[in-house]
TrEMBL record:
Coiled coil (residue ranges): 202-263, 313-347
Protein name, entry field: Band 7 domain-containing protein
Organism whose genome encodes this protein: Methylobacter tundripaludum (strain ATCC BAA-1195 / DSM 17260 / SV96)
Tagged with keyword Coiled coil: yes
Keywords: Coiled coil
Keyword Coiled coil carried by entry: yes
Length: 428
């Protein structure tokens, strides 16, 4: 009976997992906020509690209380049907308190999650007991525990959200059955369901065993068939191997014949190469003789070219000496020419200086004479004002003197121009 009980438990767990995969369960999705914090503002007798906003800056009158997301694991073992069925219950609860719950419990903000666990653990256990004790018939044995797990998870989440606690619950049920006791009238439907499932499970196991035996037999037959095919392949390979060996011997003989022909061709080619080599040696000897004669003729030509070059170099040196003599003669002529040019230039400068001195002396003399005449005229102007004839004569004399001065200046200018005209001829 113990083995029967173990088989039933195994079937029940596998059936539950299969039903979980096939079904599309409803999941209570809670939106948690990992950064949720409460800010308590207290100034004197006034206080205020609010969620911490973004960009919040804490002041000295603020007290910040975090509302963390926490995991809560509750395990229970419940016996049903007078101990015939034992269910291990595991509640995995992920919860977080809301602002409304915190406002209702401001005195326990420092340990609000611990307060939630203490306050609601008994209520959750009672809820589990209530849901499981309502399983009066054995229909769930046929369907599995997936629907019950989902129902308990939703009930727990609903109860906590009604208390302003966000939560997400995962319920796991693992039933196990004891040996069949004496049938009681109140529990006969459960026993029958378990017996039916046990029979179905054993039947499925026998069918699986039968299929496994058939599979093993088919595998043995397939293995024998493969062995026979392998023997046929081995025989075929042996025939192919003998044929290949005969072919290899034939190919070996043909290869040997081919090698002998190639050897004959190589010896023939070597003989031709030797004759060709001897002819090449003779040609090389002849070319060496011709090359030696050409080198001798080239050396004679080089000697003649060298002699001719030396003669040209001697002539070039003679021409170079003549050119140096001409250059020295030309430089002497240039030195004499520069000396004559400097002498002429000095004479020209002296002439210009004498001419300027003459002009200066003439100007000074004329100036003195004019000044003297002007003074005399001024002295006699009052005396001879009435003598018009004398006055006119004086005027005429003055005009004549002015004319002489102008003629003298023109003569000096003409002499200067002549001196300037003679200078270019001297430079040439």
């Amino acid at each position: 009976m113990n083995s029967s009980r173990t088989e039933i438990d195994t079937w029940f767990i596998e059936g539950t997992l299969a039903s979980d995969d096939v079904a599309n369960p409803e999941v209570w999705e809670a939106i948690f906020d990992a950064d949720r914090q409460l800010v308590h503002t207290k100034i004197g007798p006034y206080g205020k509690l609010f969620l911490r906003p973004e960009g919040f800056v804490k002041r000295f009158y603020h007290h910040v209380y975090p509302l963390p997301v926490e995991n809560w694991l509750i395990t229970q073992q419940i016996k049903l049907y007078d101990g015939f069925c034992t269910i291990d219950v595991t509640l995995d609860i992920r919860f977080q308190a809301t602002l409304k719950y915190a406002l209702s419990n401001m005195d326990i903000l420092t340990d609000i999650n611990g307060h939630i666990k203490t306050a609601y653990e008994d209520l959750l256990i009672n809820l589990i007991h209530k849901e499981l004790l309502n399983l009066s018939d054995g229909a769930w044995v046929q369907k599995g525990v997936a629907d019950i797990e989902k129902k308990i998870s939703l009930a727990v989440s609903e109860m906590l959200i009604l208390q302003n606690i966000q939560s997400q619950t995962l319920c796991t049920l693992k039933p196990s059955f004891e040996e069949f006791p004496d049938v009681q009238l109140a529990q006969e439907s459960v026993y029958l369901c378990v017996l039916k499932k046990s029979f179905e499970f054993n039947e499925a196991k026998r069918e699986e065993l039968f299929h496994q035996e058939q599979e093993i037999e088919n595998q043995n037959l397939e293995h024998k068939q493969k062995q026979l095919e392998q023997l046929n392949r081995d025989a075929e390979l042996e025939r192919l191997k003998q044929a290949q060996e005969a072919l290899n011997r034939k190919l070996l003989l043909e290869e040997k014949e081919k090698q002998l022909l190639e050897q004959f061709e190589i010896e023939k080619r070597l003989h031709a190469e030797k004759i060709k080599h001897d002819n090449s040696l003779k040609e090389i000897t002849l070319e060496a003789d011709i090359e030696g004669q050409q080198k001798h003729e080239a050396s004679l030509r080089l000697a003649e070219q060298k002699t001719h070059m030396e003669a040209l170099a001697h002539q070039a040196k003679l021409k170079e000496k003549e050119l140096e003599a001409d250059i020295a003669k030309y430089e002497n002529q240039q030195a004499r020419w520069r000396e004559a040019k400097d002498k002429i230039h000095a004479q020209q400068i002296a002439f210009e200086q004498r001419q300027k001195q003459l002009e200066f002396d003439s100007d000074v003399e004329n100036q003195k004479r004019r000044e003297q005449q002007r003074l005399e005229m001024q002295q006699e102007s009052y005396k001879k004002r009435k003598e018009s004839d004398v006055y006119l004569r004086r005027e005429i004399e003055l005009l004549a003197l002015e004319k002489q001065r102008l003629e003298l200046q023109l003569a000096i200018k003409d002499a200067k121009k002549q001196g300037d005209g003679n200078n270019p001829q001297i430079k040439i």
